Amino acid sequence: MLKGFRDFIMRGNVVDLAVAVIIGGAFGQVVNSLVSDVLMPLIGALGGAPDFSAIRLGPVALGKFINAVVNFLIVAAAIYFLVVTPMNELAKRRKKEEAPAAPPEPPEEVKLLREILEELRKKA
């Protein structure tokens, strides 16, 4: 029973997933700091109020929802431009490097011999 558990834990996927969760949490803190400490004050400087939580529509705290939407959009944009776009570009470059070169075109003699072989097969 312990051997099975050890084998499960030592699989590459489990270790990779654990590392991804830890790195994701740390990256989330960085992005949240970017949003709350850098971008929202800039939005506030341009628009007058970086915090929309005071906006209410009767008993509904509409401003908190607006804050959450703005925060989500900024986080999504930061992840897209800082992680997804560079990774896609890196994948394209790797694919170009790993792509096998097209086979060289055969000499004219080989082409002629292939045509003769096709004609002979048609006659047979």
From TrEMBL:
Family in the record: Belongs to the MscL family.
Protein name, per record: Large-conductance mechanosensitive channel
Record bears the keyword Plastid: no
HAMAP family hit by this protein: MscL (MF_00115)
Domain of life per record: Bacteria
Oligomeric form and interacting partners: Homopentamer.
Main location: membrane
Protein localization: Cell membrane
Key words of the record: Cell membrane, Ion channel, Ion transport, Membrane, Transmembrane, Transmembrane helix, Transport
Function of the protein: Channel that opens in response to stretch forces in the membrane lipid bilayer. May participate in the regulation of osmotic pressure changes within the cell.
PROSITE patterns: MSCL
Record carries keyword Disulfide bond: no
Stretches that traverse the bilayer: 12-31, 65-85
Matching InterPro entries: Mechanosensitive_channel_CS (IPR019823), MS_channel (IPR001185), MSC/AndL (IPR037673), MscL_channel (IPR036019)
Membrane topology: Multi-pass membrane protein
